[in-house]
Specification:
Elements lengths: L6 E8 L2 H12 L2 E4 L8 E4 L16 E6 L9 E5 L3 H10 L3 E9 L3 E7 L5 E7 L3
Parallel strand pairs: 1-4, 5-8
Antiparallel strand pairs: 1-5, 2-3, 3-4, 6-7, 7-8
Length: 132
């Protein structure tokens, strides 16, 4: 049996960062952090307690983020799967009937990231973390 690649992150679009932040902090107690203009107004959502290395203390939990909605592009909630080798995973995705969306990009202090559509047209992403 091949290695299982875990879901490690979720993402969703937003229209109003203040309304979004208030909603998730109030409804679920999440800690929301806007990364600012230099990081594309990305908002990190911490959904479970983390240690000093920003790793979840509770096994099986994930954190996520929110990105500004772009009315010119179809955007949907998505999740991110951690992989050991992004190039190999991209080949596996293509061979399984998926479609890679662009080229991998480096996210500083995070790792290489690229999105794809699966065999059903769902948008998903893979991440080769810097630590792997």
């Amino acid at each position: 049996m091949s290695k299982l690649n875990p879901v490690v992150h979720f993402e969703m679009p937003y229209e109003n960062n203040e309304r979004l932040t208030k909603f998730y902090e109030s409804a679920f107690g999440w800690k929301m952090q806007n990364m600012g203009k230099e990081m594309g107004d990305y908002i990190i959502a911490v959904t479970s307690e983390v240690d000093e290395n920003n790793k979840n203390k509770t096994p099986g939990t994930i954190n996520g983020g929110f990105f500004p909605r772009n009315p010119e592009v179809s955007q949907y909630p998505s999740f991110v799967i951690a992989v050991e080798n992004i190039a190999e995973s991209m080949k596996n995705i293509k061979n399984a009937g998926g479609n890679i969306l662009g080229e991998p990009m480096m996210i500083p202090n995070v790792g290489q990231f690229v999105s794809f559509t699966d065999s059903e047209g769902n948008r998903v992403s893979i991440l080769q973390p810097s630590s792997m």
